Amino acid sequence: LSISATKDGINTTKDVENSKSKLPVNTSYVVIKGGNHTQFGAFQKLQPSDGKADIDQSTQTDQIVSAIWNFIK
User: Fold this and answer.
1) What is the pTM of this model?
2) What is the mean pLDDT of the chain?
3) Distances from the Cα of 66 to the Cαs of 1, 9, 21, 47, in angstroms?
C-alpha cells in the first residue's frame, strides 16, 4: 500500500512515480486529494517545503485510516 497526497511538498507526486519501480507490482496506490505531508504525522506546524493542505487534519486522517482498513480487510 502506498498512500500519498496531492499537496505533499516533501514526498511529491513525482517522487511517488519515481519510486514505483522499487515497490511490488501489486502495490495499491491511494492518493489523498488536497492532503499534505504535515497531516500524515499530525505535526503542529507545517513542515518546511510542504504544500498547504486543502483539507483539514481530520478529513485526511479519516482517508488514511480508510485506505489502510480497506487494504488489510
Assistant:
1) 0.87
2) 95
3) 12, 23, 25, 24
